[in-house]
Protein backbone atom coordinates (compact mmCIF):
# COMPACT_ATOMS: atom_id res chain seq x y z
CA UNK A 1 0.00 0.00 0.00
CA UNK A 2 2.76 2.46 0.96
CA UNK A 3 4.86 1.70 -2.12
CA UNK A 4 1.93 2.00 -4.56
CA UNK A 5 0.61 5.13 -6.12
CA UNK A 6 -2.44 7.05 -5.01
CA UNK A 7 -4.56 5.34 -7.64
CA UNK A 8 -3.59 1.87 -6.45
CA UNK A 9 -3.91 2.72 -2.76
CA UNK A 10 -7.36 4.24 -3.16
CA UNK A 11 -8.55 1.33 -5.30
CA UNK A 12 -7.24 -1.27 -2.82
CA UNK A 13 -8.82 0.62 0.06
CA UNK A 14 -12.15 0.82 -1.79
CA UNK A 15 -11.99 -2.90 -2.62
CA UNK A 16 -11.16 -3.83 0.97
CA UNK A 17 -13.95 -1.71 2.43
CA UNK A 18 -16.46 -2.91 -0.17
CA UNK A 19 -15.54 -6.58 0.26
CA UNK A 20 -15.69 -6.36 4.06
CA UNK A 21 -19.00 -4.50 4.00
CA UNK A 22 -20.49 -6.87 1.45
CA UNK A 23 -19.36 -9.93 3.42
CA UNK A 24 -20.83 -8.62 6.66
CA UNK A 25 -24.06 -7.60 4.93
CA UNK A 26 -24.25 -10.99 3.19
CA UNK A 27 -23.85 -12.94 6.42
CA UNK A 28 -26.47 -10.82 8.15
CA UNK A 29 -28.83 -11.15 5.19
CA UNK A 30 -28.53 -14.96 5.08
CA UNK A 31 -29.03 -15.23 8.85
CA UNK A 32 -32.11 -13.00 8.80
CA UNK A 33 -33.52 -14.77 5.75
CA UNK A 34 -33.04 -18.21 7.31
CA UNK A 35 -34.68 -17.10 10.53
CA UNK A 36 -37.65 -15.55 8.75
CA UNK A 37 -38.18 -18.69 6.64
CA UNK A 38 -38.02 -20.90 9.72
CA UNK A 39 -40.45 -18.62 11.55
CA UNK A 40 -42.80 -18.84 8.58
CA UNK A 41 -42.47 -22.65 8.61
CA UNK A 42 -43.28 -22.78 12.33
CA UNK A 43 -46.30 -20.55 11.68
CA UNK A 44 -47.53 -23.01 9.05
CA UNK A 45 -47.07 -25.89 11.51
CA UNK A 46 -49.08 -24.00 14.11
CA UNK A 47 -51.92 -23.41 11.64
CA UNK A 48 -51.94 -27.09 10.67
CA UNK A 49 -52.01 -28.13 14.34
CA UNK A 50 -54.91 -25.75 15.00
CA UNK A 51 -56.80 -27.35 12.10
CA UNK A 52 -56.29 -30.88 13.50
CA UNK A 53 -57.35 -29.76 16.99
CA UNK A 54 -60.51 -28.25 15.52
CA UNK A 55 -61.27 -31.48 13.61
CA UNK A 56 -60.85 -33.55 16.77
CA UNK A 57 -63.18 -31.19 18.63
CA UNK A 58 -65.80 -31.66 15.87
CA UNK A 59 -65.84 -35.40 16.51
CA UNK A 60 -63.57 -36.66 13.78
CA UNK A 61 -61.30 -39.54 14.64
CA UNK A 62 -57.50 -39.10 14.99
CA UNK A 63 -56.97 -41.17 11.84
CA UNK A 64 -59.27 -38.90 9.86
CA UNK A 65 -57.82 -35.70 11.37
CA UNK A 66 -54.21 -36.59 10.59
CA UNK A 67 -54.76 -37.43 6.95
CA UNK A 68 -52.94 -34.90 4.68
CA UNK A 69 -51.68 -34.94 1.13
CA UNK A 70 -48.39 -33.17 1.88
CA UNK A 71 -45.17 -35.14 1.64
CA UNK A 72 -43.15 -32.70 3.69
CA UNK A 73 -45.59 -32.76 6.64
CA UNK A 74 -45.88 -35.21 9.54
CA UNK A 75 -49.03 -35.12 11.72
CA UNK A 76 -49.41 -37.14 14.94
CA UNK A 77 -52.06 -37.49 17.61
CA UNK A 78 -50.58 -38.71 20.87
CA UNK A 79 -52.82 -40.07 23.59
CA UNK A 80 -52.67 -39.22 27.25
CA UNK A 81 -50.61 -42.39 27.78
CA UNK A 82 -47.84 -41.02 25.53
CA UNK A 83 -48.40 -43.38 22.62
CA UNK A 84 -49.03 -42.40 19.02
CA UNK A 85 -52.73 -42.92 18.33
CA UNK A 86 -52.65 -41.78 14.72
CA UNK A 87 -50.08 -40.55 12.18
CA UNK A 88 -50.09 -39.72 8.52
CA UNK A 89 -46.62 -41.20 8.15
CA UNK A 90 -46.34 -44.89 8.94
CA UNK A 91 -42.57 -44.82 9.20
CA UNK A 92 -42.77 -42.46 12.13
CA UNK A 93 -44.05 -44.44 15.10
CA UNK A 94 -42.19 -42.57 17.81
CA UNK A 95 -43.75 -39.37 19.25
CA UNK A 96 -41.92 -36.34 17.91
CA UNK A 97 -42.76 -34.40 21.08
CA UNK A 98 -44.28 -35.39 24.43
CA UNK A 99 -45.25 -31.91 25.56
CA UNK A 100 -46.58 -28.72 23.97
CA UNK A 101 -44.04 -26.37 22.38
CA UNK A 102 -41.98 -25.65 19.30
CA UNK A 103 -38.59 -26.94 18.15
CA UNK A 104 -36.49 -26.30 15.04
CA UNK A 105 -33.98 -28.52 13.29
CA UNK A 106 -35.42 -31.73 14.68
CA UNK A 107 -34.07 -34.93 13.16
CA UNK A 108 -36.63 -37.71 12.54
CA UNK A 109 -35.38 -41.30 12.60
CA UNK A 110 -35.71 -42.92 9.22
CA UNK A 111 -36.18 -39.63 7.32
CA UNK A 112 -33.67 -37.30 5.72
CA UNK A 113 -33.36 -33.65 6.59
CA UNK A 114 -34.57 -31.68 9.57
CA UNK A 115 -38.05 -30.57 10.62
CA UNK A 116 -39.72 -27.72 12.44
CA UNK A 117 -42.04 -29.27 15.05
CA UNK A 118 -45.02 -27.73 16.86
CA UNK A 119 -47.14 -29.48 19.50
CA UNK A 120 -50.28 -28.35 21.30
CA UNK A 121 -52.96 -30.09 23.41
CA UNK A 122 -56.50 -30.66 22.37
CA UNK A 123 -59.45 -30.11 24.69
CA UNK A 124 -59.55 -33.79 25.66
CA UNK A 125 -55.89 -33.80 26.71
CA UNK A 126 -54.48 -35.48 23.65
CA UNK A 127 -51.32 -33.95 22.12
CA UNK A 128 -51.37 -32.86 18.48
CA UNK A 129 -47.93 -32.74 16.83
CA UNK A 130 -47.18 -31.29 13.39
CA UNK A 131 -43.73 -31.36 11.78
CA UNK A 132 -42.83 -29.57 8.55
CA UNK A 133 -39.67 -30.33 6.55
CA UNK A 134 -37.02 -27.61 6.48
CA UNK A 135 -35.79 -28.76 3.07
CA UNK A 136 -37.23 -25.73 1.26
CA UNK A 137 -35.78 -23.41 3.86
CA UNK A 138 -32.35 -25.00 3.52
CA UNK A 139 -32.60 -24.95 -0.26
CA UNK A 140 -33.57 -21.25 -0.33
CA UNK A 141 -30.75 -20.43 2.08
CA UNK A 142 -28.20 -22.35 0.01
CA UNK A 143 -29.37 -20.66 -3.17
CA UNK A 144 -29.04 -17.26 -1.53
CA UNK A 145 -25.55 -18.08 -0.29
CA UNK A 146 -24.54 -19.21 -3.79
CA UNK A 147 -25.86 -16.01 -5.32
CA UNK A 148 -24.00 -13.94 -2.76
CA UNK A 149 -20.77 -15.88 -3.27
CA UNK A 150 -20.98 -15.16 -6.99
CA UNK A 151 -22.35 -11.60 -6.87
CA UNK A 152 -20.16 -10.17 -4.10
CA UNK A 153 -16.84 -10.76 -5.94
CA UNK A 154 -18.39 -9.46 -9.15
CA UNK A 155 -19.64 -6.39 -7.30
CA UNK A 156 -16.25 -5.86 -5.71
CA UNK A 157 -14.54 -6.14 -9.10
CA UNK A 158 -17.04 -3.66 -10.53
CA UNK A 159 -16.33 -1.22 -7.70
CA UNK A 160 -12.59 -1.69 -8.22
CA UNK A 161 -12.92 -0.96 -11.93
CA UNK A 162 -15.07 2.11 -11.39
CA UNK A 163 -12.78 3.47 -8.66
CA UNK A 164 -9.67 2.73 -10.76
CA UNK A 165 -11.08 4.59 -13.76
CA UNK A 166 -12.49 7.45 -11.68
CA UNK A 167 -9.24 7.99 -9.76
CA UNK A 168 -7.24 7.76 -12.97
CA UNK A 169 -9.45 10.34 -14.61
CA UNK A 170 -9.28 12.59 -11.55
CA UNK A 171 -5.49 12.30 -11.29
CA UNK A 172 -4.82 12.77 -14.99
CA UNK A 173 -4.63 16.60 -14.65
CA UNK A 174 -2.31 16.15 -11.67
CA UNK A 175 0.04 14.00 -13.73
CA UNK A 176 -0.05 16.61 -16.51
CA UNK A 177 0.80 19.30 -13.97
CA UNK A 178 3.63 17.16 -12.59
CA UNK A 179 5.16 16.76 -16.05
CA UNK A 180 4.82 20.45 -16.79
CA UNK A 181 6.35 21.35 -13.42
CA UNK A 182 9.24 18.95 -14.04
CA UNK A 183 9.86 20.64 -17.40
CA UNK A 184 10.17 24.12 -15.86
CA UNK A 185 13.84 25.01 -15.68
CA UNK A 186 15.44 27.83 -13.73
CA UNK A 187 15.65 29.92 -16.91
CA UNK A 188 12.00 29.38 -17.82
CA UNK A 189 11.06 30.19 -14.23
CA UNK A 190 11.88 33.88 -14.67
CA UNK A 191 11.62 34.19 -18.45
CA UNK A 192 7.98 33.15 -18.73
CA UNK A 193 6.08 34.77 -15.88
CA UNK A 194 2.43 33.79 -15.78
CA UNK A 195 2.95 30.87 -18.23
CA UNK A 196 3.28 27.96 -15.86
CA UNK A 197 0.89 25.02 -15.55
CA UNK A 198 -2.20 24.48 -17.65
CA UNK A 199 -5.31 24.94 -15.48
CA UNK A 200 -7.86 22.15 -16.07
CA UNK A 201 -11.47 23.01 -16.70
CA UNK A 202 -13.85 23.00 -13.76
CA UNK A 203 -14.14 24.54 -10.33
CA UNK A 204 -13.04 21.71 -8.05
CA UNK A 205 -9.82 21.18 -6.09
CA UNK A 206 -7.62 20.32 -9.11
CA UNK A 207 -8.02 23.67 -10.95
CA UNK A 208 -7.55 25.52 -7.67
CA UNK A 209 -4.41 23.48 -7.02
CA UNK A 210 -3.04 24.39 -10.46
CA UNK A 211 -3.82 28.08 -9.89
CA UNK A 212 -2.12 27.95 -6.49
CA UNK A 213 0.95 26.31 -8.02
CA UNK A 214 1.06 28.99 -10.71
CA UNK A 215 0.91 31.72 -8.07
CA UNK A 216 3.68 29.98 -6.15
CA UNK A 217 5.82 29.64 -9.27
CA UNK A 218 5.23 33.30 -10.13
CA UNK A 219 6.43 34.32 -6.66
CA UNK A 220 9.42 32.01 -6.90
CA UNK A 221 10.16 33.29 -10.39
CA UNK A 222 9.95 36.88 -9.21
CA UNK A 223 12.22 36.15 -6.25
CA UNK A 224 14.61 34.27 -8.53
CA UNK A 225 14.72 37.17 -10.96
CA UNK A 226 15.33 39.63 -8.12
CA UNK A 227 18.09 37.41 -6.80
CA UNK A 228 19.77 37.24 -10.21
CA UNK A 229 19.47 41.00 -10.60
CA UNK A 230 20.76 41.54 -7.07
CA UNK A 231 23.79 39.32 -7.65
CA UNK A 232 24.47 41.04 -10.95
CA UNK A 233 24.22 44.53 -9.45
CA UNK A 234 26.25 43.58 -6.37
CA UNK A 235 28.98 42.11 -8.58
CA UNK A 236 29.02 45.30 -10.65
CA UNK A 237 29.19 47.53 -7.58
CA UNK A 238 31.98 45.50 -6.01
CA UNK A 239 33.88 45.42 -9.28
CA UNK A 240 34.07 49.22 -9.44
CA UNK A 241 36.13 49.85 -6.27
CA UNK A 242 38.26 46.80 -7.00
CA UNK A 243 39.00 48.11 -10.48
CA UNK A 244 39.92 51.53 -9.07
CA UNK A 245 42.21 49.93 -6.50
CA UNK A 246 43.92 47.81 -9.15
CA UNK A 247 44.34 50.80 -11.47
CA UNK A 248 45.74 52.95 -8.68
CA UNK A 249 48.25 50.29 -7.66
CA UNK A 250 49.33 49.63 -11.27
CA UNK A 251 49.85 53.34 -11.92
CA UNK A 252 51.88 53.68 -8.73
CA UNK A 253 53.94 50.62 -9.67
CA UNK A 254 54.70 51.84 -13.23
CA UNK A 255 55.17 55.49 -12.30
CA UNK A 256 56.40 55.59 -8.70
CA UNK A 257 57.42 59.25 -9.06
CA UNK A 258 53.86 60.35 -9.94
CA UNK A 259 52.48 59.69 -6.45
CA UNK A 260 53.45 59.40 -2.83
CA UNK A 261 52.83 56.73 -0.24
CA UNK A 262 50.43 59.01 1.62
CA UNK A 263 48.45 59.83 -1.50
CA UNK A 264 48.32 56.16 -2.51
CA UNK A 265 47.16 55.22 0.98
CA UNK A 266 44.41 57.87 0.88
CA UNK A 267 43.14 56.64 -2.47
CA UNK A 268 43.16 53.01 -1.31
CA UNK A 269 41.42 53.97 1.94
CA UNK A 270 38.63 55.76 0.06
CA UNK A 271 37.89 52.79 -2.16
CA UNK A 272 38.24 50.37 0.76
CA UNK A 273 35.73 52.41 2.75
CA UNK A 274 33.35 52.42 -0.18
CA UNK A 275 33.67 48.65 -0.60
CA UNK A 276 33.32 48.04 3.14
CA UNK A 277 30.12 50.06 3.25
CA UNK A 278 28.71 48.10 0.33
CA UNK A 279 29.54 44.76 1.92
CA UNK A 280 28.06 45.88 5.25
CA UNK A 281 24.86 46.95 3.51
CA UNK A 282 24.64 43.62 1.70
CA UNK A 283 25.02 41.76 4.99
CA UNK A 284 22.29 43.83 6.60
CA UNK A 285 19.94 43.11 3.70
CA UNK A 286 20.75 39.39 3.88
CA UNK A 287 19.90 39.36 7.58
CA UNK A 288 16.64 41.16 6.94
CA UNK A 289 15.75 38.72 4.14
CA UNK A 290 16.41 35.67 6.31
CA UNK A 291 14.79 36.48 9.65
CA UNK A 292 12.80 38.87 11.77
CA UNK A 293 14.38 41.31 14.20
CA UNK A 294 16.17 39.34 16.90
CA UNK A 295 15.76 41.81 19.77
CA UNK A 296 12.59 43.70 20.60
CA UNK A 297 12.66 46.30 23.35
CA UNK A 298 11.41 49.77 24.16
CA UNK A 299 13.60 52.32 22.40
CA UNK A 300 13.68 56.09 22.87
CA UNK A 301 13.73 57.00 19.22
CA UNK A 302 14.45 60.67 19.93
CA UNK A 303 17.64 59.76 21.83
CA UNK A 304 18.72 57.53 18.95
CA UNK A 305 18.05 60.30 16.40
CA UNK A 306 19.98 62.89 18.40
CA UNK A 307 22.90 60.48 18.88
CA UNK A 308 23.15 59.81 15.14
CA UNK A 309 22.91 63.55 14.37
CA UNK A 310 25.80 64.19 16.79
CA UNK A 311 27.83 61.44 15.14
CA UNK A 312 27.16 62.88 11.70
CA UNK A 313 28.13 66.37 12.84
CA UNK A 314 31.34 65.02 14.33
CA UNK A 315 32.09 63.33 11.03
CA UNK A 316 31.50 66.62 9.20
CA UNK A 317 33.86 68.45 11.54
CA UNK A 318 36.53 65.78 11.14
CA UNK A 319 36.31 66.06 7.34
CA UNK A 320 36.29 69.85 7.39
CA UNK A 321 32.80 70.18 5.85
CA UNK A 322 30.96 71.76 8.77
CA UNK A 323 29.34 74.41 6.59
CA UNK A 324 28.15 72.11 3.80
CA UNK A 325 24.82 70.85 5.22
CA UNK A 326 22.97 72.05 8.30
CA UNK A 327 21.09 69.46 10.38
CA UNK A 328 17.88 70.95 11.78
CA UNK A 329 16.61 69.03 14.86
CA UNK A 330 14.30 71.70 16.28
CA UNK A 331 11.24 69.54 15.53
CA UNK A 332 12.48 66.41 17.29
CA UNK A 333 10.29 65.59 20.28
CA UNK A 334 10.01 62.54 22.54
CA UNK A 335 8.90 59.27 20.97
CA UNK A 336 9.14 55.65 22.10
CA UNK A 337 8.66 52.53 20.03
CA UNK A 338 9.21 48.79 20.43
CA UNK A 339 11.77 47.30 18.09
CA UNK A 340 15.29 46.13 17.44
CA UNK A 341 17.72 48.95 18.39
CA UNK A 342 20.18 47.90 15.68
CA UNK A 343 17.51 48.04 12.96
CA UNK A 344 16.19 51.38 14.21
CA UNK A 345 19.74 52.74 14.11
CA UNK A 346 20.10 51.49 10.52
CA UNK A 347 16.89 53.29 9.56
CA UNK A 348 17.99 56.60 11.08
CA UNK A 349 21.58 56.39 9.78
CA UNK A 350 20.58 55.57 6.22
CA UNK A 351 17.89 58.26 6.07
CA UNK A 352 20.28 60.90 7.45
CA UNK A 353 23.16 59.92 5.17
CA UNK A 354 20.85 59.82 2.14
CA UNK A 355 19.47 63.29 2.96
CA UNK A 356 22.91 64.80 3.59
CA UNK A 357 24.24 63.30 0.39
CA UNK A 358 21.51 64.95 -1.71
CA UNK A 359 20.83 68.14 0.24
CA UNK A 360 21.95 71.55 -0.92
CA UNK A 361 22.18 73.26 2.45
CA UNK A 362 19.65 71.91 4.97
CA UNK A 363 18.34 68.60 6.30
CA UNK A 364 15.33 68.77 8.63
CA UNK A 365 14.51 65.94 11.05
CA UNK A 366 11.06 65.71 12.62
CA UNK A 367 9.91 63.24 15.30
CA UNK A 368 6.53 63.15 17.00
CA UNK A 369 3.91 60.78 18.43
CA UNK A 370 0.50 60.82 16.76
CA UNK A 371 -2.46 58.51 17.43
CA UNK A 372 -0.45 55.64 18.98
CA UNK A 373 2.23 55.97 16.31
CA UNK A 374 5.72 57.42 16.21
CA UNK A 375 6.33 59.39 13.02
CA UNK A 376 9.90 60.15 11.90
CA UNK A 377 10.49 62.30 8.84
CA UNK A 378 13.77 63.32 7.21
CA UNK A 379 13.69 65.90 4.41
CA UNK A 380 16.27 67.77 2.37
CA UNK A 381 16.37 70.77 0.08
CA UNK A 382 17.87 68.92 -2.86
CA UNK A 383 16.36 68.16 -6.25
CA UNK A 384 13.77 65.73 -4.85
CA UNK A 385 12.44 62.52 -6.36
CA UNK A 386 10.02 62.42 -9.27
CA UNK A 387 6.62 60.82 -8.45
CA UNK A 388 7.28 58.03 -10.96
CA UNK A 389 10.45 57.04 -9.06
CA UNK A 390 9.10 57.18 -5.49
CA UNK A 391 8.41 53.45 -5.38
CA UNK A 392 11.49 52.43 -7.34
CA UNK A 393 13.79 54.42 -5.08
CA UNK A 394 13.50 51.63 -2.46
CA UNK A 395 14.73 48.97 -4.87
CA UNK A 396 18.23 47.62 -4.44
CA UNK A 397 20.78 49.38 -6.63
CA UNK A 398 18.01 51.55 -8.08
CA UNK A 399 19.33 53.99 -10.70
CA UNK A 400 17.53 57.33 -10.78
CA UNK A 401 18.44 60.66 -12.29
CA UNK A 402 21.86 62.23 -12.02
CA UNK A 403 20.76 64.40 -9.14
CA UNK A 404 20.53 61.36 -6.88
CA UNK A 405 23.16 59.14 -8.51
CA UNK A 406 25.47 56.91 -6.55
CA UNK A 407 28.65 58.58 -7.68
CA UNK A 408 28.20 61.07 -4.84
CA UNK A 409 28.82 58.39 -2.26
CA UNK A 410 25.83 56.08 -2.15
CA UNK A 411 25.78 52.41 -3.12
CA UNK A 412 22.07 52.25 -3.88
CA UNK A 413 21.30 50.05 -0.87
CA UNK A 414 20.55 52.50 1.95
CA UNK A 415 16.90 53.07 1.15
CA UNK A 416 16.39 49.38 0.43
CA UNK A 417 17.69 48.68 3.94
CA UNK A 418 15.33 51.31 5.33
CA UNK A 419 12.30 49.74 3.67
CA UNK A 420 13.26 46.21 4.74
CA UNK A 421 13.98 47.25 8.32
CA UNK A 422 10.77 49.26 8.66
CA UNK A 423 8.74 46.35 7.28
CA UNK A 424 10.46 43.98 9.71
CA UNK A 425 9.38 46.25 12.57
CA UNK A 426 5.80 46.36 11.33
CA UNK A 427 5.90 49.97 10.13
CA UNK A 428 5.65 51.84 6.84
CA UNK A 429 7.91 54.21 4.93
CA UNK A 430 6.83 56.64 2.22
CA UNK A 431 8.48 59.40 0.19
CA UNK A 432 6.89 62.72 -0.79
CA UNK A 433 7.99 66.20 -1.78
CA UNK A 434 9.45 68.15 1.13
CA UNK A 435 8.59 71.68 2.19
CA UNK A 436 12.25 72.50 1.63
CA UNK A 437 11.88 71.45 -2.00
CA UNK A 438 13.68 68.09 -1.94
CA UNK A 439 12.61 64.62 -0.85
CA UNK A 440 10.80 63.86 2.41
CA UNK A 441 10.96 60.32 3.82
CA UNK A 442 8.32 59.48 6.45
CA UNK A 443 8.64 56.42 8.70
CA UNK A 444 5.64 55.40 10.80
CA UNK A 445 6.07 52.92 13.66
CA UNK A 446 3.82 51.77 16.48
CA UNK A 447 4.31 53.73 19.68
CA UNK A 448 5.31 51.88 22.86
CA UNK A 449 2.47 51.41 25.35
Protein architecture, described:
- There is one protein chain.
- With 449 residues, this protein is an alpha+beta fold.
- The protein folds into three domains: 6-140, 2-Layer Sandwich (Beta-Lactamase); 185-290, Helix Hairpins; 293-446, Heat Shock Protein 90 (2-Layer Sandwich), CATH 3.30.565.
- The chain has nine helices and twelve strands.
- The strands form three sheets. A five-stranded antiparallel β-sheet has the order 2-1-5-4-3.
- β3 and β4 form a beta hairpin.
- The model is unreliable at 402-409 (pLDDT under 50).
How are the secondary structure elements laid out?
Elements: H1 6-57, H2 62-65, E1 73-78, E2 84-87, E3 101-107, E4 114-121, E5 127-133, H3 135-183, H4 186-191, H5 205-254, H6 261-290, E6 297-300, H7 301-319, E7 326-332, E8 336-339, H8 341-358, E9 362-370, E10 373-380, H9 414-424, E11 428-433, E12 439-446
Parallel strand pairs: 7-9
Antiparallel strand pairs: 1-2, 1-5, 3-4, 4-5, 6-8, 9-10, 10-12, 11-12
Helix pairs in contact: 1-3, 5-6, 6-9, 7-8, 8-9
